[in-house]
Design a protein that fits this description.
This protein has a domain of about 120 residues. It is about 15% helix and about 25% strand. It is built from three helices and eight strands. The radius of gyration is 18 Å and the shape is globular.
């Protein structure tokens, strides 16, 4: 008997390392469509090779982690029929007293200065360019180190392509052709 009843909503949380977030790019590809997923909390909070211990979490955001979060988020966007929401966590950090790192938004009593993390800007870039229809993609190469997703925003009749390149020093090309664009 399947331990997860059909129709149950699953709440996924992950505070892993960059390589783990990239491995999870395809996490929801084979998810049973009868069980929707809410990614209730995700964020890369520790270095590669560290165990999941809050004391080992990075004090400040760093670049490879943000690219890894983008790769994970692209994987979420490839599965709109299975994943219905995605939220970064930890969300808010009072710079004077906090428990977790890194956070999306940092604040203190000075409301004129509210620093937003690099994760905030990655999420903004990806979420401000939405699509309403996922497009199937023909590709000749495997994902990794290049990851992508494509869609159509029916509201404004615009094609949207999103991509991220993770942890490589080699050059790579993308050739993107949408119907009617040649």
């Amino acid at each position: 008997m399947d331990p997860i009843p059909k129709g149950a909503v699953l709440d996924y949380h992950d505070y892993g390392n960059p390589d783990g977030a990239v491995r999870n790019f395809a996490l929801f590809d084979d998810q049973d469509e009868s069980n929707k997923v809410l990614v209730g909390e995700y964020g890369v909070a520790r270095n590669n090779c560290n165990e999941v211990l809050w004391k080992d979490h990075r004090k400040r955001p760093w670049w490879i982690a943000r690219v890894a979060e983008a790769v994970f988020y692209l994987g979420v966007e490839r599965n709109p029929d299975k994943v219905f929401g995605c939220a970064f966590a930890p969300l808010l950090q009072n710079i004077e007293s906090y428990q977790w790192n890194p956070n999306l938004i940092t604040f203190n009593a000075n409301t004129s200065v509210i620093p937003k993390s690099t994760s905030f800007h990655v999420m903004g870039l990806l979420s401000n360019n939405r699509f309403t229809t996922l497009l199937s993609v023909e590709y000749s190469e495997e994902y990794d180190p290049r990851f992508w997703v494509a869609g159509l925003n029916d509201d404004i009749n615009t094609y949207v392509w999103k991509g991220a390149v993770y942890n490589t020093t080699t050059e790579g090309e993308f050739e993107i052709n949408f119907p009617g664009s040649q």
